Amino acid sequence: MKPTLLVLAAGMGSRYGGVKQIDAVGLHNETLLDFATYDAMRHGFGKVVYVIRKDIEKDFRERLFDRVARNFDAEYVFQTREGGLTSEQAKKAENRTKPWGTIHAVLSAEEAIKTPFAVINADDYYGSIAFETLGKHLSQMAVDGTEHAMVGFILGNTMSRSGTVSRAICTVKDDYLVSLKENTKIGYEGDKIISLLDGEKIELTGKEWVSMNFFGFSPKAYEEFHVYWENFLKDNLTSEKAEALLPEAASQIITNNHGKIKMYTSPENWFGMTYPEDRAIVKEEIAKKIASGYYPDTLWEK
């Protein structure tokens, strides 16, 4: 059974200042998502599902989707503010403009997910090794399997000099995740890496293993995601900023003894499109990978 790649591409891009998930960074106007989808395809994934906003559909099709769909089994679904809410809940949350977060995006795609699946962010570069690793795990997983997976990265390889980043720090024992703790503001202060957590500054070593939202699940994980989402809404329905986060829901699978998450690792350096200054860096890194033969000059046939 070939796994599915689920791409979370409905973010607002507030720090970037635009629709970063479809910004051109390749030699032929490819986006980061072109390279992620290509990596998934060549490592055994059978389909890609993109979660997007309705307002970017036209640009999304023109800049990415139509060319991918000519070469790979692809579809997209919408993440809307009202999705997953009753009419009464939607009315109470009518002042909400910000997306509900990554777990809400995953739930938006539930009907399109029929096989074990990997989840990625649209604006992060993960590298071929990570897709190969997770593809192997998922291809051997049953649709009701409970041994999920994650590819973690070394914190120091995932930092940006342009500003703070959000990372979930992993606690691992015997190659399995014990817990994930979301740190929403990690940045440099000089040469030090500092996390601002609950109003307290904590110095990190840079060697911690962190989640970049590159998880692998069986469809059974949706049972836990629904529980997490309903509990989230009880506490945050009227909030304009609170987000339902995938690492928190994944951690709940472990703490509730409803499954395990196998921890794999990748030595590759992250790069991504968090801030406007990042685009030039990403373009340069992609060009280097093409020049070295890591990627072909042209990813897709016309």
Automatic annotation (TrEMBL):
This is Nucleotidyltransferase.
